[in-house]
Design a protein that fits this description.
This is STAS domain-containing protein. By secondary structure, the protein is α/β, with parallel strands linked by helices. Helices cover about 35% and strands about 30% of the residues. Strands 1-2-3-4 form a four-stranded mixed sheet. The radius of gyration is 15 Å and the shape is globular.
């Protein structure tokens, strides 16, 4: 594909995992940025494997997520499940109003352990 194509001129998005110090010790900080859709499916799988291997409390940061497609939604649910199974704290933060509407409309705010900024929080 030509690099000048409007569909391929910039990367669609990213999912990154880093370790960071938090108020109660180290944690896995997962950032979803840009358009997190089917093109990032392999990246989502790798990020989930990394989160599980770290065995740390997880913070998902959605501040830079412009689009949350099925890949992002699946990642959120799978990450919550993995954290629940391992007994690890899990939180989703910096949820934009658009993403909050998507999560709420799909009932995913009730599936997630704790989503900061949504009117419905399930613990």
């Amino acid at each position: 594909m030509p690099s000048s194509s409007p569909f391929f001129s910039t990367p669609p998005g990213s999912i990154t995992v880093v370790t960071a110090d938090g108020p109660s010790g180290p944690r896995a900080l997962v950032r979803l940025a840009g358009e997190v859709d089917v093109l990032l499916r392999d990246q989502a799988d790798a990020a989930l494997a990394q989160v599980v291997a770290l065995g740390l409390p997880v913070v998902i940061d959605l501040a830079e997520a412009r689009l949350v497609g099925a890949t992002a939604l699946t990642f959120l649910v799978r990450c919550e499940d993995a954290c629940s199974d391992a007994g690890l704290p899990y939180v989703v933060q910096h949820v934009t109003p658009h993403v909050a509407r998507v999560l709420g409309a799909l009932g995913l705010d009730a599936v997630l352990r704790h989503v900061e900024g949504l009117s419905t929080v399930s613990s």
